[in-house]
Amino acid sequence: MASFRQVVKRLVLGPPVRSDRMRETLLPKRLALPVFASDPLSSVTYATQEILLILSLGGLAVLHLAPWVGLGVVLLLAVVVASYRQVVHAYPSGGGSYEVAARNLGRNASLVVAAALMVDYVMTVAVSVAAGVDNLVSAVPALYPSRVWLAVVLVLVLAALNLRGARESGRAFAVPTYLFVTAMGLTVLVGLVQTAAGHPPVAESAGWGIRPEQTDLTGIALVFLLLRAFASGCTALTGVEAISNGVPAFRRPRAHNAGRTMLIMGGLAIGLFSGVTALAVISGVRVAENPCDLIGFPGDCRNSGQRTVIAQLAASVFGDGSVMFFVVQAGAALILVLAANTAFNGFPMLGSLLAQRRYLPRQLHTRGDRLAHSNGIVVLGAVSIALIASFGGSVTALIQLYIVGVFLSFTLCQVGMVRHWNHELRESDDPGRAHRARLINAVGAVLTATVLCVVLATKFTHGAYLVVLAIPLLFLLMRGIHRHYRQVRRELEPESGLLDSPSRVHAVVLVSTVHKPALRAMAFARAARPDTLTALTVEVDEADTHLLRSEWERLGIDFPLEVVESPYRDITRPIVGYIKDLRRSRARDLVCVYIPDYVVGHWWEGLLHNQSALRLTWRLRFEPGVVVVSVPWQLDSSHRREVDRAHHPPGHVRRGIRPDFH
């Protein structure tokens, strides 16, 4: 029978997929849209709310400026979508902003972009899941005390779905994404029709007042508040670059399909964001960072949360508690949770690319049983859970850390694309197209750089400083990893004389008692025909050593048994000292240490055996001129396990447990 761990693994992940079936995991446009576009689409649920939250600091007097702030966000979103469509066609191999910066701006700029994107992906998971839980709590207020645990469970579910592979996660996420788009589209359409008919929807909070934190806003203070609201509204742009990062996951023609998907995504995001913002202004939605600042707020403002903007709009358009109200809330909660899927696709791909170029550990480049970059998915899930737990699942707190990395990568990508088109102009037969493309990217660079400055100025003291610290640290970490790999490669380059045979080979067999594993190790050592062959034991108990000597003589073993004393009952140090002495007297000789190795079939059997040989093996690896040879002896439990697993797919590694040397 398969082990319990393997049964659970197969239930969660499904059966392994052969490498030659990689083509079958590629995504058509109808599945690529929910996989890669759920993040920018989901931002519709909180981007408008973030604008209103900041404007509410000035009280009711400045809420009428929300449409103008929203218009600025829409224009910026359109420019960025147009810019990244060009990235998709110019760099169809994937990598997005990182690849553009690497090819046009150099290594350091590309690593800054990579660090910014990694921070952005982590924040996408944390913010999206936390916001999804908030919408769920808006529909079921009793869940409010458990919101952090709910967020953690949802991250785990997302990680498990993505470990099954991109195609299966796309199928799982398609229905919720299209449900949200349909439900929100109907909300906006019905609300605008009601308004045109002279019966505009009225939000439950429309009659509330707001206790302003800032009064008499004029001049620079008003401009600063508007810029801060604009910076918060720019969360609507998060995830726009995900399609350019994941072009290799699309079916052929990849660039064409990815470009079409990005165009659809941009149109949906702009339409829904504009509609939600307009409807929020029409219905008179009131929100505040602190519910106690809402004059007329029902209930206990200290222990209960306020309803989200989306919940208030759905209630005002369809009626509180109606079927459509719950459909909208379910769609909003699902799309927000699934928005994290954009990061679960982008982060592992970026990590794989960086690992391939030796800027991150090589383990991030390998694919798991389902041809997904499993290690990257696990790392992203773990860091996101830690972040959610640290900030108590608060969207308001997490959002402050969010878009610094987004706009840093946007800006460097657009600058890189300008340099790309400059190069193309020198070689292009169609300069008109290159000029138009360069103009789009130049405008995008200026706008995103401006927003980056605004974000840094308005959010730095509210938590963005953590991201400003994290990006340089990640940059230095990647440089350090690359330096290590480069140094290792330099040390491993072949030199003349490395194939010269050692002067002599000395075999040392470690024994604790004369049993079958020890005899097999001796036989293997003899078969290698070393110049000298010695058995070595450590005397911890004099009676045990005497018994070993007696058995040695009884069996007539024809090579010497060396005994080293250990008055302090340590095994490793006396053996290492003996090997060092052997090496010290014969510097050009090779010492081969043979260690008998039990192989057991069950994990719990390993708990019954001392691991001194494992520590000894690790210690001997640091000794030059020493080779450690493990000689396995399979116990009956390992044979039974092998028979049980004979018909199971490959990928199972039998665990070895080393015997004691006491």
What proportion strand?
Answer: 5-15%
Count the helices. How many?
24
Task: Characterize the main sheet.
Answer: 6 strands, mixed
Tell me how many strands there are.
8
Estimate percent helicity.
Answer: 55-70%
Structural class: alpha/beta
What is the global morphology?
A: elongated
Distance between the termini: 34 Å
Report mean pLDDT, rounded to a whole number. 81
As a whole number of angstroms, the C-alpha radius of gyration is: 32 Å
Describe it:
With 662 residues, the protein is an alpha/beta fold. Helix content is 62%, strand content 7%. It has helices spanning 4-13, 29-42, 44-55, 66-90, 96-104, 107-139, 147-163, 166-196, 219-233, 242-245, 254-283, 309-318, 323-356, 374-390, 395-398, 403-427, 431-459, 464-492, 516-527, 542-555, 572-585, 603-606, 612-620, 636-644, and strands at residues 209-210, 294-295, 505-510, 532-539, 561-565, 590-599, 626-634, 656-657. Strands 3, 4, 5, 6, 7 and 8 form a 6-stranded mixed β-sheet that branches. A two-stranded antiparallel sheet has the order 1-2. Strand 4, helix 20 (542-555) and strand 5 form a beta-alpha-beta unit. It is elongated. It starts with a helix and ends in a 5-residue tail after the last strand.
Keywords:
662 residues; alpha/beta; six-stranded mixed beta sheet; two-stranded antiparallel ribbon; 24 helices; 8 strands; 62% helix; elongated; disordered C terminus
